[in-house]
Design goal:
Blueprint (H helix, E strand, L loop, with lengths): L1 E6 L26 E6 L10 H10 L14 E5 L18 H26 L6 H14 L14 E6 L2 E8 L5 E3 L11 E10 L5 E12 L6 E9 L12 E4 L15 H7 L7 E5 L7 E5 L6 E9 L14 E3 L2 E2 L2 E3 L6 E3 L1 H10 L3 E6 L2 E6 L8 E4 L2 E4 L2 H4 E4 L5 E3 L1 E3 L7 E3 L1 H4 L3 E5 L4 E7 L2
Parallel strand pairs: 5-10, 6-9, 16-25, 17-24
Antiparallel strand pairs: 1-2, 3-12, 4-5, 4-8, 6-10, 7-8, 8-9, 11-12, 11-26, 13-27, 14-15, 14-20, 17-25, 18-19, 20-21, 22-23, 26-27
Helix pairs in contact: 2-3
């Protein structure tokens, strides 16, 4: 083994003109502090100094980056449990459309809370605020309450540790904070109780409220990081069949309910230089044991280089920049959200898409537009993401059947109050997705078979 010195440029640190997190506020140094990594012996044909290595990396195409691996990355195994949209009493994969509506309503509630947090943090109106409020008014008139228990059984769950206590967590790129049920975490001697509290009311009257603590965060083989915020609820606000005990958000800090004094866990990892690079990647699969969240690097399950699109950071979400995303030729604005089971689009655009697909019948029920297969052939759904095409896999294109045995497409139309589509699980299972905080980009790569 050979020691290889890699200099981490200060420009790789997070920054924002509008919102200052702990990562962004790190003072610039006259010269970046060297970081020693132990890497495998370089190929015998080429031997690079650290300066040459950095120069070579800077020459790589911005749109094509290959996986980077080091001892400062960690792959968290993810699992997915009972499909919460299926009728539990049936074994034929039948979908309960009432639960679909519940899931969509809770997505709407999540984005409402995020936008409220954004406006408190930024002291300005969120770009999506008016659309959310108008839709919330219509929703209140047309729909009843939605139980929070329906939201989480389809999220991807892994384990992290606070204060030495392992916690089963749902990882959500559509929110920012880490919140856990009462009893999931017990503050010990190393914990610090802050003056920060949180309170969020959901559609069924369920309230997640409690106090923010800080404690030492440990994730696998990464170096422990002290003083990382965790919100401990006073009740079991999250009820799932999977045993998940909380949610950890991976969106931008401007959406945080905890405020700038308590940055999200991934920001803390970056600030502490516990990860090699300020990015993380999801490689999800329908096959058991084949899904992971990799912190600090691109998943080794990526087949070849990734193609990147810019992120519109001003909204706080992982939203692709205008003009960078389309689906079957229809230009859309896309928020990439690991916490959404389906792909949710504007009803008019979804209807346009579904009506263009052979063998698909479009129906609208209770304000939700669905597509049903009338043949055994699954249509091709293609996302154009910058220069990259991602074709949804067949198993990701549908998510079950209705009571008549018709397959239901995983793309639905509903106004949830944001200017864009919420692109969830089907895209994640059809590609490796890289979220690059250092460059404010999202990358998409093919997955190894």
């Amino acid at each position: 083994m050979a020691d290889f010195e890699v200099v981490v440029p200060a420009s790789r640190l997070l920054s924002s003109a509008q919102f200052t997190s702990h990562v962004a506020s790190t003072p610039p140094l006259p010269r970046p502090t060297p970081l020693s990594l132990t890497l495998a012996t370089p190929p015998t044909a080429i031997v690079l100094t650290s300066l040459e290595y950095l120069q070579l990396r800077s020459l790589l195409s911005y749109h094509h980056q290959t996986p980077f691996h080091s001892n400062m990355t960690e792959a968290i195994a993810l699992s997915k449990n009972v499909h919460h949209l299926k009728v539990a009493a049936k074994s034929d994969g039948a979908i309960d459309l009432k639960l679909v509506q519940s899931h969509l309503k809770l997505i709407e509630r999540k984005f409402q809370l995020n936008i409220t947090n954004y406006e408190q943090n930024m002291a300005q109106k969120h770009p999506h605020a008016q659309a959310v409020r108008e839709d919330a008014d219509k929703s209140a008139e047309n729909e009843g309450d939605v139980p929070l228990t329906d939201q989480q059984d389809e999220l991807w769950t892994g384990t992290i540790s606070y204060g030495g206590q392992p916690i089963n967590i749902d990882f959500d790129t559509g929110s920012t904070d880490t919140l856990v049920n009462v009893g999931a975490y017990i503050p010990g001697d190393g914990a610090k109780k802050t003056s920060q509290t949180f309170k969020a009311r959901y559609g069924d009257g369920t309230t997640a409220e409690g106090t923010v603590y800080t404690d030492t965060l440990e994730i696998g083989g990464l170096a422990p990081v002290p003083n990382v915020a965790i919100g401990l609820a006073t009740t079991t606000f999250l009820k799932t069949e999977s045993g998940s005990q909380g949610i950890s958000g991976l969106a931008y800090p401007s959406l945080s309910h905890f405020g700038k004094d308590h940055p999200p866990f991934f920001d803390c990892l970056v600030t502490a230089k516990a990860v090699a690079r300020p990015l993380f990647s999801f490689a999800l699969s329908s096959e058991p044991g084949q899904s992971e969240l990799v912190l600090g690097s691109i998943s080794s399950k990526a087949a070849g280089p990734a193609t990147y699109v810019n992120v519109d950071r001003s909204v706080g979400f992982w939203q692709c920049a205008p003009g960078s995303c389309s689906i079957n030729g229809i230009q859309i604005s896309a928020i990439i959200d690991s916490g959404t089971t389906l792909i949710v689009g504007k009803p008019t655009q979804v209807a346009q898409l579904l009506e263009s697909l052979p063998g698909v019948k479009t129906e609208t029920q209770n304000g939700v537009t669905y597509g049903y297969l009338t043949t055994s052939v699954v249509p091709q759904i293609t996302f154009q993401l910058g220069e990259k095409q991602v074709v949804l896999t067949e198993d990701a294109t549908t998510y079950g059947t209705d009571d008549s045995g018709r397959k239901v497409l995983s793309i639905v139309g509903r106004d949830i109050g944001v200017e864009g589509w919420i692109v969830g699980d089907p895209l994640f299972r059809s590609s490796v997705i890289i979220f690059d905080r250092g460059n404010d980009t999202i990358g998409f790569a093919d997955r190894l078979a």
